[in-house]
Write a structure and sequence with these properties.
The complex is a heterodimer of chains A (261) and B (327). Chain A is of the alpha/beta class and 261 residues long. Chain A folds into 2 domains: 214 residues, 3-Layer(aba) Sandwich (Rossmann fold), CATH 3.40.50.620; 31 residues. In chain A, 28% of the residues lie in helices and 30% in strands. Chain A contains 6 helices and 15 strands. In chain A, the strands form 3 sheets. A 9-stranded mixed β-sheet of chain A has the order 11-10-9-12-8-1-6-7-13, with helices on both faces. In chain A, helix 2 crosses helix 5 and helix 3 packs across helix 4. Chain B is α/β, with parallel strands linked by helices and 327 residues long. Chain B is elongated, with a radius of gyration of 23 Å. Classes of the chains: A alpha/beta (261), B alpha/beta (327). At the A-B interface, helix 3, helix 4, strand 9, strand 11 and strand 14 of A face helix 5, strand 5, strand 7, strand 8 and strand 11 of B.
Chain lengths: 261, 327
């Protein structure tokens, strides 16, 4: 019966972020956090697979204390076990370090058939930690799956690249990244949420993973994060009726030289 | 890992040679600042003429791995070849086009070389220490982050269409070096592959984009937007919910879809969530046609027309027909 590991991230809800208009700095402290959207699809896919084939779903997250709410939610959605990788050394990591931590944790969890990750997270939108983790684990990688099947130790996924659609196969263990369209994540029932609140969350720190400070040095430094300048004219086209508005708009676009070249 | 200094300090690569050409100008600019050379990596089978092509477009050098195993793109052979060349020659910077394959490759390569990787960079420069500083969109378009590298090689991926191809110079001289490498076998098997018909023109290249959003009641109503687009030489696009929720289309304009920067963008019934705005931000002129003056798109538009798009768009078509005829 398959052992499936899902990596999730508790991310800032990007739709709730505000910027200070004067400094263009982001105000993220009070922005709500949630499981990053596509990570939920990854989890849903794992839980569906378990419901069909049996086995076990383990969810792993790296994050600060607050990230345990994401694990609670994952348990309510259907994960069996939850691991929280939490250490002050795990702050401000780049994808090299994050993948190192995830890789060590997954190795420590022992044998698995599948690791499922979302293709990217809503906050950084980088979409590269999964590939790096697959390299750490030295397992086959299938990215951008829009369908996923596990049968007799063979993983089959359909995926779209820019120029072609592929059906890709690999022998387990495999790391797969999924896209948002792969499924519609369920909303856990109140009963499931109650049950999940009683489950144990296991915390692993750097020492538990055999990672020293020297190994966790970031290769990158974020030097600035600012809201982009949006200096637009914001001219309200006013008119008596739609035809009048349309006339004025047409004239303005021609005058700007963007229409009628 | 200590890196020896080498003549070809800046490398560019894409499995799609047309996209490698888009990286030439930026690569060259960085190489000049570093007083080093620009080398294009070329992997494939029977690639002599493509090597010449890269030199005509401005590469100082082509590092060519010519092998039948590289005829079609497979991650592991390509990855092992590039990692092998990089270990032999220790480049400072590697720029890779952000295709789906390119992003797989860049991230895995960075891991093998124990170095940093910054994906989807829209701006690149060097800081006072001579390290690459990349700019990219984060937080769903709410912010731009500047990220500085510490380690080498410094691997960045660049979305297609970010930089323009330079003009080729016929007969331009450059060196083509053939490199011997070790290959790994693919770890996955492609059981089936179906070529996707590329749309005739890419929306990234459109001079004008007419975009429909949730204010569009029916898919058939795009006829109206198509007519407007045809009239002024543009293309139509749509927002993500029309594809993801209503299943009208397979693609969309926005941060997670096609990022566009036309001369003119017209949002028809587009509310303008931040992820969509992040995909159109660099448009020269932005127009919002919306019944709701509070729609976020109105905040980032040059012209705002408030009203029923089903009245304004047909009226705009008529007005433009008249103006363009008389003009």
């Amino acid at each position: 019966m398959p052992r499936i590991i899902v990596c999730i991230k508790q991310a800032v809800d990007v739709t709730q972020i505000r910027a200070d208009p004067a400094t263009r700095r982001l105000i993220t402290v009070d922005a709500p956090r949630k499981i990053s959207d596509i990570d939920k699809n990854a989890l849903e896919e794992a839980v569906r697979m378990k419901e069909k084939l049996g086995g076990e779903v383990t969810v792993v997250t790296m994050g600060e204390d607050g990230a345990k709410t994401a694990l609670r939610e994952a348990l309510a959605i259907g994960a069996d076990k939850a691991y929280h990788l939490n250490d002050s050394l795990f702050q401000n990591t780049d994808t090299r370090v994050t993948s190192l931590i995830l890789g060590e944790a997954i190795k420590k969890l022992g044998q698995f058939d599948l690791v499922i990750c979302g293709e990217t997270t809503i906050d950084s939108f980088a979409g590269i930690t999964s590939q790096r983790t697959a390299e750490r684990l030295e397992v086959p990688l299938i990215m951008y799956a829009r369908s996923l099947k596990l049968d007799g130790g063979i993983v089959t996924a359909e995926r779209a690249l820019e120029d072609r659609n592929e059906t890709v196969r690999a022998r387990t263990p495999v790391l797969v990244t999924v896209i948002k369209g792969i499924n519609e994540p369920r909303i856990p029932s109140l009963m499931a949420i109650m049950k999940a609140s009683k489950k144990e969350i296991i915390i692993w720190n750097a020492e538990a993973l055999g990672l020293s400070k020297e190994k966790l040095v970031s290769t990158l430094e974020i030097t600035e994060v600012l809201a982009p300048k949006m200096e637009r004219r914001k001219i309200m086209i006013k008119g008596e009726n739609p035809a009048d508005i349309a006339n004025k708009l047409a004239k303005a676009l021609i005058k700007d030289g963007v229409v009628g070249k | 890992m200590t890196m020896m200094s080498e003549a070809e300090g800046v490398w560019i690569f894409s499995e799609n040679n047309e996209l490698t050409l888009e990286l030439v100008s930026k690569g060259k600019e960085l190489a000049n600042k570093m007083q080093t050379q620009l080398a294009a990596l070329l992997l494939g089978s029977d690639i002599q003429s493509q090597a010449q092509h890269l030199i005509q477009y401005g590469a100082d050098k082509v590092l060519a791995v010519d092998n039948p195993r590289l005829k079609d793109f497979r991650a592991e052979p390509f990855l092992s070849a590039i990692a092998s060349v990089a270990r032999q020659r220790a480049p400072s910077i590697i720029l890779i086009a952000s295709t789906r394959r390119g992003k797989e490759l860049a991230a895995r390569l960075a891991t093998r070389l124990e170095t940093g990787c910054v994906p989807d960079c829209t701006k690149l420069d060097l800081n006072d220490q001579g390290n690459l500083v990349a700019e990219r969109i984060v937080y769903g378009g709410s912010a731009m982050a500047k990220i500085a590298f510490h380690t080498k090689p410094q691997i960045a991926t660049i979305p297609p269409g970010t930089f323009e191809k330079p003009t080729p110079v016929a007969g331009r001289a450059g060196q083509i070096a053939s490199v011997e490498v070790q290959f790994e076998e693919p770890k996955t098997e492609v059981a089936e592959a179906m070529q996707v018909e590329a749309s005739q023109t890419k929306i990234e290249e459109a001079r004008i984009v007419i975009c429909g959003g949730r204010g569009m009641a029916k898919k058939e109503d795009f006829t109206m937007l198509n007519e407007l687009a045809r009239l002024i030489g543009g293309q139509t696009g749509n927002t993500r919910p029309l594809s993801e929720d209503r299943k009208w289309f397979s693609e969309w304009v926005g941060l997670s879809g096609h990022k566009v920067r036309p001369e003119l963008y017209v949002g028809c019934g587009v509310s303008g969530v931040i992820q969509h705005v992040a995909g159109i931000r660099d448009s020269k002129v932005i127009v919002a046609i919306n019944k709701d003056p509070e729609a976020p798109l109105c905040e980032v538009a040059d012209y705002v027309a408030i009203g029923n798009l089903y009245e304004i768009v047909p009226a705009l078509i008529e007005a433009l027909k008249r103006e363009l005829k008389s003009g």
